[in-house]
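Marked as duplicate of an earlier ticket. Keeping the data here for the record.
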Amino acid sequence: MSPSRPTASEPSTDRRAERTRAALRDALLARLGSQDLDGLTVAGLCRAAGVHRTTFYGHYDTTESFAVGVLADLVDEAASVTGLDDGSVGEIAESYYATLGGMLDLLDRRRGVYRALFRSSMGSAFREALRTVLRRHLALALAVLGGHGLGPPGQRDLVAAFLSGALASALEAFVEGPPKEIDGEVRAMFDLFPPWWPRLSTRDSPPER
């Protein structure tokens, strides 16, 4: 009798789940480009993704909760900064400036979608998801700054929680406001960070994003 190999099926199952989520995510983003969140149905989303409704409900409760996760994930991806452990303070400032610009670019491109989500019945859930994403990235940023002798003297978790709430509110205000020139918005928002946050070495020449 051949020995069982449970580990062989697990990666296959994971890959299927990833493909299913990717198909649903692509369908969601495509449909949100032409219709409101309130008009999105599980049946329509699954039909567009080529996924059975039973599969959807095996992972998610509603299209709204799925949208919260997907749109928070997009911010998560845009907020990611890597390879800073060996960077100079100036390089760190430029990286975070560019990252903030990437987040605003994302929100600007999908302004109507994010605005609708903030105003929907899932607005509170999305704000919490957004704060969670930003808090994690800010905690990592504070650890990097600490390695350079920068940042607050202690209580990094508390500082990350405070800054994530402030940044999430600023991003919501950006989405709710009229479209503006992005570079000016990035600079204005970057200047709101605490005085100990690293600044750009040349204020008149912000890094390319």
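See parent ticket for discussion. Residues 8-60 form a domain with the Arc Repressor Mutant, subunit A fold (CATH 1.10.10).
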